Amino acid sequence: MKRNVAIVGGGQTYHRARRHDVDQAEMVNEAVRAALKDAGMTMDEMDMVVLGNMEFFEGTHMTDCWLVHATGAYGRQGLKITTGGTVGATVVCAGAHLVASGLCDRVLCIGFEKQEEGDTGAILSGVANPLWGRSMAGAAVGYFAMMGSSYMAAWGAKEEHSAMVAVKARQNARKNKYAHLKLDITVEDVLNSRMLAWPIRMLDMCPASNGACAVILADDKTAKDRCRKPVWIRAMETAHNEQFELDWRDVKTKRPIFSKVCAGRIYGRLGVSDPKTYFDVFEIYEPATWAELVWYEDLGLCGPGEGFRLIEEGKTNIDGPIPVNPSGGVLSTNCIGASAMLRVWEAALQIRGDAGGHQVPKEVRRALTTAYGGTNWTVMIALSGALDD
Amino acid sequence: MDDLNQYQPFEVDQHLTAHGNYWAGRAGSRFYRALRDRRRILGSPCRNCRKVFWPPRSICTFCFSELREMVEIGPLGTVETFTLVTYAEPVHPRPAPFIYAVIRLDGADTGMAHFLDEVEYERVHVGMRVRPVFAPQRKGNILDILYFKPL
């Protein structure tokens, strides 16, 4: 990067299935004010506002226009970004580009979704390929169901393994005051929950959440003058795949897969040979349990077909050697446009040591965050607490 | 042999139906309850900017202050701009012709679009004084004000 980029502040709302007390503007504004407060900055100090949500998931379009009073974007430079599940991470990437290039010194990044107000299933059918996919579209569950059945057939994993992921996520969420699904559940509870599309049960899936997240990115000088605990963006990578209907996710495929390619590139940039020891914590994008097991393998935390062993052995628990999603992850909180930014913000909190109840019990110097969206657009961001680390 | 450059363009029919709802929030909830239950119109003052917003809002666009207070505005107002709609569109709230006007209520610094009825189009002018006509059965919708009409 031409210039270093730091996360100098951030904030989030409490995430809930229902937010009847606020409209979309007021909800977004909660996260913006929390981020400004955390950074000790005012809106006037922001050079630019980058806003993201998944268009029409809350029944609204052009939110960059009619939320200007709430985002603080009125009269300022601004961008609007929509990239499906990756929105929040793409917003951070765009903000980091602006700071790294020298176009801006301070950028306010915002991601939000008020999912209870829209028809996400209908809008997701519009994400499907209009010629081949739309008439067969059935929202997100089917994709992960196919991933799960393929994973079990390929590697001999059992439904209990995905249930272990569900339990880890919701037990971690119980430690996170902002999380949505704080469930004191067991593997049996998951296996007894309603079957949606085999092998995906109710508790294998993320909730539809309302919430917002905001982070403030800044240049070297601002970070050093103004921020006590800057967290540095050390590398970013993105990669696209084709859509599911045209390129479904065979777990045994030898072809390059978007997430593996993306991981390979970001590791290359940082000189990472063993990601599970290089990074101290991972915040990954897992809208369904099986996705987490596949991520373990795509990220190289284990070999192909060994992901379910990691969860079985408790390696990725909050107090394990490879903590994954101590926040509770997307499985516990999915306010789409905010979800991928929450990965970045939660990872930053871990590095700052400010995660509170879900702080991992070891030194956190480096973190890796991932995201993917409905159109298989993968975004990864690597963070560290020190620029020379 | 088929000519590889020849084909008949083919269209695949597409339909999308999406439902939605919207919670009105701090300012909007108070506005709609006052309109529905008391036929009162509320605006949001920003003491810092000395502006009163209509429609009301919880954050000042200009100075980013949080706005908690609400004040009664109108019901009389002034036409700031207007047009006569003479074409039909499925999305229009009414069949054409009808008059749209931006009306700034007394006590507010911003205007909002609404219908202007019970007036000959030729008589409408910027600066015209108007008053609202409320629906007899109000539901908590901006059409609880059926339309505005000249004084």
Your description of this structure?
- The complex is a heterodimer of chains A (389) and B (151).
- Chain A starts with a strand and ends in a 5-residue tail after the last strand.
- Chain A is an alpha/beta fold and 389 residues long.
- Chain A is built from 15 helices and eleven strands.
- Chain A has a domain at 5-119 and 208-226: Thiolase/Chalcone synthase (Peroxisomal Thiolase, Chain A, domain 1), CATH 3.40.47.10.
- Chain B has 151 residues and is mainly β.
- Chain B has one domain.
- In chain B, 9% of the residues lie in helices and 30% in strands.
- In chain B, strand 1 and strand 2 form a beta hairpin.
- The A-B interface holds A 19-26, 29, 43, 56, 58-60, 68-70, 72, 74, 116-119, 122-123, 125-126, 130-131, 134 and B 12, 14, 16-28, 57-62, 64.
Short description:
With 389 residues, chain A is α/β, with parallel strands linked by helices. Chain A has helices at 24-39, 63-66, 68-71, 87-100, 120-127, 141-155, 159-173, 187-192, 220-226, 258-270, 275-278, 289-298, 307-312, 329-332, 336-352, and strands spanning 5-12, 48-52, 77-81, 106-114, 195-197, 200-201, 210-219, 231-240, 281-283, 366-372, 377-384.
Blueprint (SSEs and pairs):
The complex is a heterodimer of chains A (389) and B (151).
Chain A: E1 5-12, H1 24-39, E2 48-52, H2 63-66, H3 68-71, E3 77-81, H4 87-100, E4 106-114, H5 120-127, H6 141-155, H7 159-173, H8 187-192, E5 195-197, E6 200-201, E7 210-219, H9 220-226, E8 231-240, H10 258-270, H11 275-278, E9 281-283, H12 289-298, H13 307-312, H14 329-332, H15 336-352, E10 366-372, E11 377-384
Parallel strand pairs in A: 2-3, 2-4, 9-10
Antiparallel strand pairs in A: 1-7, 1-8, 4-7, 5-6, 8-11, 10-11
Chain B: H1 25-38, E1 41-46, E2 51-53, E3 71-73, E4 77-85, E5 98-105, E6 112-116, E7 129-134, E8 145-150
Antiparallel strand pairs in B: 1-2, 1-3, 4-5, 4-7, 5-6, 7-8
